[in-house]
Amino acid sequence: MKLRRLVSADAGFRAALEALTPFDAADDRKVVETVRAIIADVRARRDVAVLEYARRFDRAKFQSVAQAGIAADRARAAGAAAGRAARSAAKGA
Q1: Which residues have a Cβ under 8 Å from the Cβ of 17 and sit 6 or more positions away?
Q2: If residue 49 lies in a helix (H) or strand (E), which one and from where to where?
Q3: What's the burial of 52, exposed, middle or buried (CB within 10 Å: 0-12/13-18/19+)?
Q4: List of residues 6+ apart from 89 with CB closer than 8 A
């Protein structure tokens, strides 16, 4: 397999990138539905669900949420980085 290098400043960059990363709108709907289900589960089961998802998705090995050690300032920074649309979608889930 030959690797192809794309440079964002090049003419045609957007078209070349889109050709390499096709996106199906149906996938977006599935992602949104999955995220909403996870958020609802975490709201209902709280720390137990957080631990299960951390183990499943991150292969985390901690036994409690407190062991995760996510500082408040890091959580705020992550929320800010997520952007307004993501935060709005999460609140609506």
Answers
A1: 6
A2: helix 47-58
A3: middle
A4: 32, 35
Residues in the chain: 93
Q: DSSP 3-state assignment of 93?
A: coil
Q: Distance (Å, rounded) from C-alpha 13 to C-alpha 4?
A: 12
**Prediction pTM value:** 0.53
**Tens digit of pLDDT for each residue in 6-51?**
899 999 998 998 888 877 766 788 888 999 999 999 999 999 999 9
Report the percent of the chain where pLDDT is more than 70. 86
Per-residue CA distances from 55 to 31, 38, 40 (Å): 19, 14, 18
